[in-house]
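#dry-run=false #mode=assembly
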Amino acid sequence: MQPYFPERSSSKKRLGLIVNPVAGLGGRVGLKGSDGAEIQRKARLLGAVPEVEERVLRALEALLPMKGDLDLLTCPGEMGERAARRCGFEPFVTGSITPGATTAADTHRAAQSMADAQVDLLLFAGGDGTARDIYAAIGAVLPALGIPAGVKIHSAVFAINPRSAGELALEYLKSRAPRFREAEVVDLDEDAYRVGDGSTCLYGYLRVPFRRNLVQNQKVPTPGSEAVQAQAVAADFVESMQKGWLYILGPGTTIRAIAQLLGMPKTLVGVDAVSCEEMIALDASEHQLLELLEHWPAKIVVTPIGGQGFLLGRGNQQISPRVIHKVGKGNILVVSLIQKLNALRGRPLLVDTGDPVLDKTLTGYISVTTGHHEKVIYQVRS
Amino acid sequence: MSQPIRSKPALRRFHQARWDEPVIFELSQPGQRGILIPEEAGIENEVGDVVASLPAYLQRKAPARLPEMSQLHVLRHYDRLSQENLGVDLNIDVGQGTCTMKYSPKVNDQLVRSSKLADLHPLQDETTVQGILKVMYRLEQFLKEISGMDRFTLQAGSGSVAIYTNVSMIRAYHARRGEAGNRDEVITTIFSHPSNAACAKTAGYKIITLYPDEDGYPDLEALKAAVSERTAALLITNPEDTGIFNPKIEEFVRIVHLAGGLCSYDQANANGILGVTRAREAGFDLCHFNLHKTFSTPHGCGGPGAGASGVTNELAPFLPVPTVEYDGVRYYLDYNRPQSIGKIRPFYGVVPNLLRAYAWIMSLGADGLREVAEIAVLNNNYLMKKVLEIRGVSAPYAQGKHRIEQVRYSWEKLTEETGVHSEEIGYRAADFGTHYWTSHHPYIVPEPMTLEPTESYSKADLDEYAAILAHIADEAYTQPETIHTAPHNSTVHRIEHETFDDPQAWAVTWRAYLRKAAQK
Amino acid sequence: MKQKKPFIHPYIPNSAPSMKEEMLKVVGTSSIEDIYADIPENLRLRRSLNLPEPLLSEYELVRHIEGLLSKNKTTREYLSFLGAGCYQHHVPAVCDEINSRSEFLTAYAGEPYEDHGRFQALFEYESMMGELLNMEVVNVPTYDGYQAAATALRMAARITSRQQILTAGTIHPDRFSKILDYSRPDLIVEQLPYHRSSGLLDLDGLSQRISDRTAAVFIENPSYLGCIETQADQIASIAHAHGALCVVSVDPITLGVINPPVEYGADIVCGEIQSLGVHMYYGGGNGGFIATRDEEKFVMEFPSRLFGVASTVVEGEYGFGDVAYERTSFALREEGKEWVGTAAALWGITAGVYLALMGPQGMREIGAGILQRTRYAMKKIAQIPGVKVMFDQSHHFREFLVNFDDTGKKVSNVNKALLEHGIFGGKDVSQDFPDLGQSALYCVTEVHTQADIDGFVSVLKEVLQ
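#status=ok
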């Protein structure tokens, strides 16, 4: 079926909607995830029924006030059309699916259609797997927001609940000066997770609408936006850089701000090595790093990844135990936005390098740069 | 749209005044006057048109486009606006946690309006102002006793200014020892008032903030990791904004002193500990109080307040000038303080508030201050018991323990289960004639609510407030739409705030608004 | 623990013992002592505070305080020529009425719903100041005019990414002291020379000292010594030619007749609002304003709140809130956006009431009237033998320097003598400006009549003989 979408109306906003119909299937029956046909089959055998549609409805209800000014583009049937109609929308529908047997490929195709249609916001319902699929298909070309409906919700791209997702979408679409933050897309390898390996992998970043705080009673100035805070961290870091040292920059947007200030590129989900004057190695492997460490004294710069606060995790293959040994524990520098630390709710930062002895030496208190001339003392555990 | 009222403890059917009042410019009637100015024809005849003698470019061309209104109409407009405002006098203002919204005695307001204070010029000969100088001197003595510190300055216009003044004195202290360059770090905690970090930063310091331990207490081990030969000072609020008293506070001070740093005690939250514990015994070098919090001066919609900074004798030389002294016969202002940090404001302080604080202390005395603290603490723990019975709310940290004078709650559970945010609960509270404050930003406790009863509210007040929260929480679970669209019975409805962040659309003045509206 | 007599007080509703007991039961503890359990014993004050016996009855309290205040002599009882940063203007009764309204007096930081009134009142204050200043952005008041100047200069440093501030040499010494303290350690603040004949800025001195490191040139208009800076437009040009901002501190009471600084090139305007309906309160009634153009680069540098107007979901309703809630600029070098505290909102509301009562006519009349009285007083005082009026060829608003060198008397002695006649003479500036000799800063406002001035002149003549 050819996509059918009208000429872009200047007064109407465009909302894309992709629903992963099997999101959350595994969770209720304790299967720790829903990826893969085999797990889905198992889940259904255990009596699981997808609840995702109810969640989508709650989100869409919040958008009803804008119905007349909104063109809603979605996928057939259980991938969005059904929920949209149930809610009272008259959606434009694109693509085709095999009901009851949708796969990641369907999500990829749907995301591509949304990108082609240049929707103003892509709302998707699912879990980390769904976010990962969308990112894999179209990267961060569209602003996106997740309606939490999966088992694994570690990515920062999700609203805290379906209703909030709808409200945030409404606010964003109505706004004259919409703002984003960059939110991590993380996922863990489910097979590994099922056998106890918990660290997440960073896949990339989506631009997510930023929730303007509604409350007016400031008693001190609020901090700047996240982008500004990251610049502040970068400014502090760059001031402290010394000539003749190698800086191994881990993944993350806060560290990317450092690279930007230096006028250098940054591999968002990978590791780069720089000096204060030039780029030394882009997207370096462990091997490359070890070679460089033969010639340079070095510091490692990391930022917590994922909602669990991993500084060094098994996902971080390049910054391996051997690299850390060579650099020296005292030369590990941590940067972070303060909101990231607050989101840990008092839980410590985590290290899981794969070498338990090394991990032990890394535990204790660490200084985290959170702004220009601002640091925080935070606990690290393994 | 009317609400089904469920059978709960009686909740008042409040409606705020809603005058639909235009902006004042819209009330202008050309030619009207609100007040007339005395003319001196004799002078005018003798000197002529002085305005015309100014260089042309300095003469105002067109008259300022201020509204033209008769006196009654100005009065009426502002009276209507005041009806569209709450205030401690009107509402159970326990919701503005950390602000200590206690009763500001009317007798004190009356006293400060006396011509014998209002019509004093600060530069009058000291023999003509002995009365007010005596009040200021005695207030300093009271605060010295209450805190145990050796000297005070009453000049600060607010708590934050007092903190800044303390930091400025700390800076001068280290500079005097040739250590200004070496000691460039200030340590604080995440639950101390954010002004501690902000003021220290303004004064040029690098800030190190400590996170609490799992129980919500300031983390001593974290302090040890933070302290070094670069430490200029520790700035800490105690009890913190969570309402928890740090039992290791003395140890904190000791560790910082060992490293050569000074310790400044932010006593904005002193209301629950008056007469119970003091800055001096914990070893602090400086402290400060907010007179518009603990000491009852009114908040004035956001000032004027007043702050008082206390120091040990060692730091006294750095106090701002002038100080108020007494030689046994006369009170006088002392400017002869060569090591002073100089002026931090015009003249001597927010004098009306100094008089109010003085009067408040004089009307209560030592037993009274102790009673204030104890009842503030009792009220807080009583309210906490009632609030924790409400579905969806929790008091993170120090589980099962009492608090001092305030509590930071979290609606996290309720938000997860219903999608209603803390702020929205606050909006809905406006429909019952009250409100609350969430927390400083960025939020550490999610979906926060900070309540501080103080000693001024009765048990019935606290019961009513808890009943209001319980009611709204219940609505969150059963009819959240009411909350999402609140307030309903307030002066205005949901504000469309999109324009506030859009430079093309925002309007800080009416003229900006008209200009931008005309451009559409 | 010995039994204390229960302390019942009108300010503490729950102090009745039966009430306490009931509440303790709910809390689940037998005494309030338990709640203080976390506080270590060695930090507990185990004695009563050593404070005077309380005046429990309201009558005693009033009598005590009135007794103290009665020792004061006021500017109602004495004829006062004092100014120097605190001014005796008439305070309209309606101003006092509105700022005693308990809803304004006892409110604090509520939302623009239940505290809509305060937001609208402050927005209207910002707006009326905007009309007076011809500028579109005015802040919710800061603590006082010194803070406003200090913050305005730090804003200028942030905006230009430069660190040097040049101020006029005739700056109020206390304002300068505050700016100096507030600018440490980032900014360098220097004073420029002025002409001894006119009291005005030495433009050559400015041209020599200004450079591409200058963030701002700062003047007061009128200056501390009362002179209207007639070269203000040139000062602004020189500043701009070097990429610096022009920051001007004014008293808004002048702006009914004197052109607002933006018209002659000021980028940031600041000042004190005490003259707009706030009693002197022994120097304790202050509020500061900062105003700029409506451009992001300025707006983002304000540490104060900025209230703006917006629509609500109901047509025709005015809603209010914070503009630019998150500041999205970041100046790498100049640190920190300072802080927002409890400053002077009630005086902002009061100043709004004042401006609304005065209207354009009133502001013009008071400005003209003060200019006339100033000129008249200068003329009459200059006629006294031995007395010189400094900078008499310059234009003055409200204040001027009177020099007593040729009388052989010191200002302090003259003032002591005047005091015996029920007069507060002008501020002695001989310490602050030693090269101006025995000079005093005299201030006249609309409260001074011709009879007051003439009467003063005869007394002064007498005292100097």
